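Section 3.1: Structural characterization of target chains.
Under the original work plan, the team committed to producing a structural model for every single-chain target entering the pipeline before any wet-lab resources were allocated. The record below documents one such target. The sequence was received from the expression subgroup and is listed exactly as submitted; it comprises 451 residues.
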Amino acid sequence: MVSPLLSSVTPVMKHSKFKMASKVAYFYDPDVGSFHYGPGHPMKPQRLSATHNLVLHYDLHKKMQLYRPYRASYHDMCRFHSEDYIDFLQRVTPQNVQNFTKSLSLFNVGDDCPVFDGMYDFCTMYTGASLEGATKLNNDHCDIAINWSGGLHHAKKFEASGFCYVNDIVIAILELLKYHPRVMYVDIDIHHGDGVQEAFYLTDRVMTVSFHKYGNYFFPGTGDMYELGSESGKFYSVNVPLKEGIDDQMYISIFKPVMQAVVNHYQPTCIVLQCGADSLGNDRLGCFSLTTKGHGECVQFMKDLNIPMLVLGGGGYTLRNVARCWTYETGVLVDEDIKNDLPFNEYLAYFAPDFVLHPEISSKQENHNTKQYLDSVRQFVLDNLRHVAYAPSVQMQDVPPDLISLDNVEESELDPDIRNHQEDIDRRVEPNNEFFDGEQDQDKDEGLLDV
C-alpha cells in the first residue's frame, strides 16, 4: 500500500555514480533573520543572520554558490498541508487575531506558536529555500544544498507545533521523491522529528532516522524505539531514544554504526539531514552535552557517504552557539578547515568572553546514558533492519513537473515553455562582489539587536 501522500510522486532513477568533489549550493534570504516571535520566546530567527554573518567573515561563501532563494507559494505549501490551515496562516495577523479565536485552537496556534508580524512571509522564505534546494539536487545543479533557515520538523498537516508552522522538510522530500526512489531523513535535533515521521509513516519510500531525547515528558513525547512505521512503512521509521547529558563520545558511538547500517540496508539515493543545534551543551531548551565538533562530526560522516544531500537547520535556542555550530558545519560541507578564533564581525559581542568557534562545554548535566543502554538500543535498531528489504524499488513512471513555479520571477523574453531557465536561475545567484568587509560594504547592520 502506498501512502496517499505519495500517490502522484513518481521518481526517475538518478545518481548511480556519485562525485567525490562536492558542489555546494547555499540559500539565504536577507530578510529571514528579521522576524520576531515575541518577547521572551526562545525561538530567535536572528540566529540565522548571525550564522550568515560568520559564514561571510570566514569567507566560506567563496567556496559555494550563493542563492537568494525562491519563496514558496500557497500551492507549494498545500502540497502537504491542508488548504484551510495555510489559508489561516496567510490571513491571520497580530492586528486581527481576535477574529480567529476558533481557528487558533483548531490549528494549535498560541503560546508556543504565536501569531507574529510577517509570520506567513517567514514561512514562505524558509520553505521556499528548502524546496529550491531539493529542486537543484533533482536537476544535478549541486551535490549538497544548505538552508539553515529550514528544518522545522514538528509542523503537522493540519496544525502548527513546537515553534514550527510549515513543514519545509516534508515538502522538500516530496519534491525529491519525483526523482529519487529512496530518500533517507536524518534528524540530530534534541527533539524527535515527529512531523516528518508522521508524514511518511506508511511508506518505504522514505526512511526516517531520529536521534533525540526521550522520556520524562520531554517534548514532543514521541520517538520511542518501538515506533517502527506501519503498513508498507513498517520498519522504515528508526528512532534512537537518548537520555539527558549524552556527550560526544557516546553520541558518535551510536550514531555512526546505526547510520552505516541504515545506509547499507536502505541504499538511499538522496539524504535530508536536519541539524538542530539544540542538542549542543548549554542550550536554553536542551539537556545534551554535545560540542560543536561532536555535532559537526555527524555532519562530516553523512557528507563522506557521497550521496546527494539537503542540509537544514532546526532547533537551537542559545543564539551564539547555534551560529558557531552551523558556521562550523558549513565549513565541513565545503571541506574548509576554519580557525578557532572568530574573525571580526557585526555580532562579535555575542561571543564574549572567549570569541572562539569551539567554546568549552562546562555542562553540569549528569550523563544518564550508560554503555549498556546504548548497546541495547543499537542492537534493537540493527535487529529491526534485518526486516528491511534491501534497496526497495519503485515502478518508474513519468515525472511530474517541478513544484517551483516562476510566478514570482520577473517577466522576460526567455522561452516561457522552459521551466527554471538557466538565465532566470543565474539572476538570483548572489554575485561574488555582493559582500564586502570594507568601505564598499553597502549592507552593514545598523547595530546589534537584543538576543
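The longest strand covers residues 206-213.
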